[in-house]
Amino acid sequence: MSGHDTPAGNGDCGCCAGVDADTPARVHNPPGLPAIAYRVGRHGDFLASMQARLSSTDTPALAALSTREMSDFSLALADAMATSLDVLSFYTERYAQEHYLRTATERLSVREMARLIGYRLAPGVAASTHLAFKLLEAPGTVPPEPIQIPVGTRVQSVPGQDETAQSFETVAEVPARVQWNAMPVQSRVPWRPQSGDTELWLDGLATQLQPGDAILIVGSDRISDPGGEHWDVRVLSAVLPDNANARTRVVWQHPLGSAFPPMSPAGVGVEVHAFRQRTALFGHNAPDPNLLSGRGSNLAKKIDKSTPSNWTWKQFHINGTTVDLESANPKITAGTWFALVSNEAGHGSADLPGYTELYRAQRVSQLSRNDFGISGKTTRITPDTTENLSAARFGLRNTLVLAQSERLATVDTPLFHPLQGDALTLGQRVEGLLPGQALAVSGTRQRIAIAAGAKGLSLQLAQGGSVTLNEGDELFMTDPASRLLFFTTITLGAEAFTALLGQASARLRLALMDRDGRSGTLVAKGHELRLAPARKDDPLVREITHIADTEQAVLLARDHTQLKLDAALRHVYERASVRVNGNVAPATHGETVEALLGNGDAGSAGQRFVLNQAPLTYVSAPTPSGGASTLELRVADVLWTEAPSLYQASPAARVYQTRQDDDGLTTVEFGDGVEGARLPSGQSNVRARYRKGLGVAGNVAAGQLTTLLSRPLGVSEVVNPEPATGGEDGELLERARENAPLTVLTLDRAVSITDYASFARAFAGIDKAHALWIPAGPARGVFLTIAGVDGAVVPPSGATFASLGAALRNHGDALVPLHLRNHLGVRFRVRLSVKVLASHETDPVLQALEAALRAHFSFARRQFGQTVSVDEVSAVAQAVAGVQAVHVTRLYRVGQAPGLVPRLFAALPVASLTGQPLPAELLTLADEPVELEVMP
């Protein structure tokens, strides 16, 4: 004992150390730990306990062993035993770890524990895409009937850097036609004059028209009805040749049609004529008789002197039956048109100041005339009608004559508005297209240019910041434009948007992308923007769409085909560049294998066979797991069915079960005659047909699948317009920990709102899911936000998206409205000032700090709607070894002004009675380097 007073029973003095045994140590683990402590002792603990027992009164026989030197044989034996117990306790702890789902470190442990509750680790799923085929075009021939592209048509990818070639096969038989190779969309419409028109297009470039020339737009009904008012005469303000397309655009200021006098454009047999001559009536330049003496000449006899103060020429007016022009023009012939234009106030327009009347020449003669003090050659025209052919309407001095009409050939009116939305009109009549058919759409994005005189415009970038835009800059449209009207935003159709360009009163919002690939938003007035034509080096964008599955989805007309799509196009296309391929087939990753597994033996229970080709392909399907095996197994040419388990299978049931090991090899197991039928005896009577290949390796980029390994008759080329998506490797350990309990929660059914999220989260190809029961439009329903593997977007046109929706309807309430949406991935940026401990090197600490931030704020570690705060960032940074102090100086969402926001929020869906809510947001750290400053 020590010399200090110590209360009885208090061992703080240490005098009793080594007297009591330390093992087995008490084990206590609070809940929620990633690993458990299960060791009852270590080497030192075991050795100390054995040494303490040597002095114990419980073992008096060992009292004589007083040495504690490790060189003693007895102590050496105790040391060896302590070593053995240390090893045993270590593996006992490891063994205990593997018996808890949270703490298990081996995939085998998780797999076997999951089997106890009926869960099988997902084997992975094959990527899927669509293939667009091009048929060989024989000159001058078009096959009247479509050819069939069969199931199993093989296509291989062209591998990129560090990639291997991947095989895909079509999974549905589709018809194909040469006419469907590259169908143009409607880029022009037949020209028909409409009230309000201010332009038309003429064929060719040699029209010999100039601004100031007059044209006539008239129909055949004017010939049969000379008094009809279905015609227009207009003076051109611009003549614009289109050299690339060998056509000419002519423009006038005054729109077609008139309220006073009431006139409307021609509608039947419309023709366009150019008036090649502007002239006047004979007598327009006659001398003023008031300037003549009126005596002693023959002229005096032709002067009307009835009004002394105002002499006039006798018969100085149009005669009402013929029209005499000021000069002879032999090019004016019978059947041509001419127009008289008065200088009458209150009629006409700025370019034709007066009342205009149209006539058709019935007879034309060339003669000499001597009248009104002048003489000369004249062209006399007898019109087809005398309507308004009077002196009161058309005076000889002030009437303009438009004559010598020449017919001009017109062309269809080109359509310049972009292609967008869910309606697609093909530029020709296309036979055979069916509702539900897949189409591959390709083209260039619509260009938008900053108009002349526009100032102060800038593109607000999605990742933050802005780019100043100058006159002539061109950008690409990424989404349909919107109009800002008071406090509302109206999404515009293509024609409405184009009509607003040039209008100073229209405020527009456009989603654009610059030439460097940066996306953002531009707010500008209509007159500050204009459409720009595509360039030869513009990249093509492609997408897969489907014709709507309705009776009226395909409408055939004489010269075009109207298609209703099941969803709006994802891109905004330059119309003339678009081509549509209808020879499209769905395809999935993997290649077909046919194998002879072996011999059946009725005397053997539970026969097993291994599929030598791995991995077995699973494709996306509307099942609870999200995948379906491609294995077809036949015994003596009879198809057997795969069952989840042989448990409780009837003795005669032709079923089998499969298991996969960690190497991806699949074992097929048959029944024992009690649970599942035994195999019948036979030589080589067990055959399998399946596909091999799956996983993320199949997520190839768009345009990589171009090699035809099997070539159906008539097929010449193939390509995948969209990337292959949905490929997922076998279930990893961490994901299996989360998904295994979901089987017990849902029992393969979706009933509660939590079930919908759990069901989707366990579905192949889906990484995260969030469900709410909220109004989405007129009805309340399940609004489900999903995210693909590693945060990837799940394409709405892909197999995974469709299979998940179908599975939820099959295993849930089909009457409950279900809205599936991809999540909104939002990013944030952060800047920190860091003080590093003097004992540590700065660069490794900063690298470890950035790695810790990226791991903590990665997609895998975050949840929908989870916030990010300054405190959380500081805590993560402070936990890094070598960090002495940290100060967060900036924290903000990408797309917002840089600053220090104490807490960043990620939105969750909010109920909407008028439209669809926005999907849930998931906030992660931006890919750009973290800004780290070192404190002195």
Mean pLDDT: 89
**Rg over C-alpha atoms, rounded to the nearest angstrom:** 44 Å
What spatial form do the alpha-carbon principal axes imply? elongated
Percent of residues in β-strands: 25-35%
Distance between the termini: 54 Å
Number of helices: 10
**What does the main sheet amount to?**
10 strands, antiparallel
Q: Order of strands across the biggest sheet?
A: 8-11-10-9-12-19-16-17-18-15
- Would you identify the regions where 5 or more consecutive residues have pLDDT less than 50? 1-11, 14-18
Could you say which structural class the secondary elements and strand pairing correspond to? mainly beta
* Overall strand count: 56
- Please give the share of residues in helix: 10-25%
Domain Baseplate protein J-like barrel: 681-727
Protein name: Baseplate protein J-like barrel domain-containing protein
Pfam families: Baseplate_J
Please describe the structure with a list of short key phrases separated by commas or semicolons.
nine-stranded antiparallel beta sheet, Barrel_Baseplate_J-like, Baseplate protein J-like barrel domain-containing protein, 936 residues, CHP02243, disordered N terminus, single chain, 56 strands, mainly beta
Layout: helices, strands, pairs:
Blueprint: H1 43-54, H2 73-97, H3 107-116, E1 128-135, E2 147-149, E3 154-157, E4 167-170, E5 174-176, E6 183-184, E7 188-189, E8 199-203, E9 214-218, H4 221-224, E10 231-242, E11 247-252, E12 271-280, E13 303-304, E14 312-313, E15 323-324, E16 337-341, E17 356-371, E18 374-383, E19 400-408, E20 413-414, E21 423-426, E22 438-444, E23 447-450, E24 457-461, E25 466-469, E26 474-477, E27 482-485, E28 488-491, H5 494-500, E29 507-513, E30 519-525, E31 529-532, E32 540-546, E33 554-556, E34 561-564, E35 579-581, E36 584-589, E37 591-600, E38 608-611, E39 618-620, E40 627-629, E41 632-635, E42 638-642, E43 655-660, E44 666-670, E45 682-692, E46 705-708, E47 715-719, H6 733-746, H7 753-761, E48 766-775, E49 780-788, H8 799-811, E50 818-822, E51 824-836, H9 842-856, E52 868-869, H10 870-878, E53 883-893, E54 903-904, E55 921-925, E56 931-934
Parallel strand pairs: 42-43, 49-50, 51-55, 51-56
Antiparallel strand pairs: 1-36, 1-47, 2-5, 3-4, 3-46, 4-36, 6-35, 7-20, 8-11, 9-10, 9-12, 10-11, 12-19, 13-14, 15-18, 16-17, 16-19, 17-18, 21-34, 22-32, 22-35, 23-26, 23-31, 24-25, 24-30, 26-29, 27-28, 27-29, 29-30, 33-34, 37-45, 38-44, 39-40, 41-42, 41-45, 43-44, 48-49, 51-53, 52-54
Helix pairs in contact: 1-2, 3-6, 6-7
InterPro entries: Barrel_Baseplate_J-like, CHP02243
Organism: Hydrogenophaga taeniospiralis CCUG 15921
Protein name: Baseplate protein J-like barrel domain-containing protein
